[in-house]
Write a structure and sequence with these properties.
Immunoglobulin-like, 1 helix, five-stranded mixed sheet, 109 residues, 9 strands, alpha+beta, four-stranded mixed sheet, 24% helix
């Protein structure tokens, strides 16, 4: 009987870990919708990756142009997710080349 409990416990532990990983990804997900970044400001740890999820009906092109970090993505089609790692601490304005009013402020600690 104890073998059944071990399998059930192991399956439950795996499920919890998978759910925790999914929630962690959601915390670092930036949604692009309505020609806007949501949220418009985020604080992340050094080395963390942000997931830019284009849920808009338009293409976007993400760019960062600062002394500490430069990034210029290819065009991002609706439904695509881009993953961007911020290599150093600081504050980084993130914009869209195509929709210049889109602004996200990323604080890296």
């Amino acid at each position: 009987m104890s073998g059944h409990y071990t399998v059930a416990f192991t399956a439950t532990a795996v499920t919890v870990l998978v759910c925790a990983a999914a929630l962690a990804d959601d915390v670092n997900t930036i949604v692009q919708n309505g020609r806007a970044f949501r949220p418009t400001e985020i604080t992340i740890n050094h080395g963390a990756t942000l997931n830019f999820n284009n849920q808009d009906e338009f293409i976007h092109q993400i760019y960062v142009d600062t002394p500490g970090f430069n990034y210029d993505s290819a065009e991002q089609n609706p439904g695509q997710v881009f993953h961007i790692a911020f290599p150093s601490a600081g504050t980084f304005p993130v914009k869209c080349h195509i929709h210049p009013k889109m602004l996200l402020t990323v604080h890296v600690k």
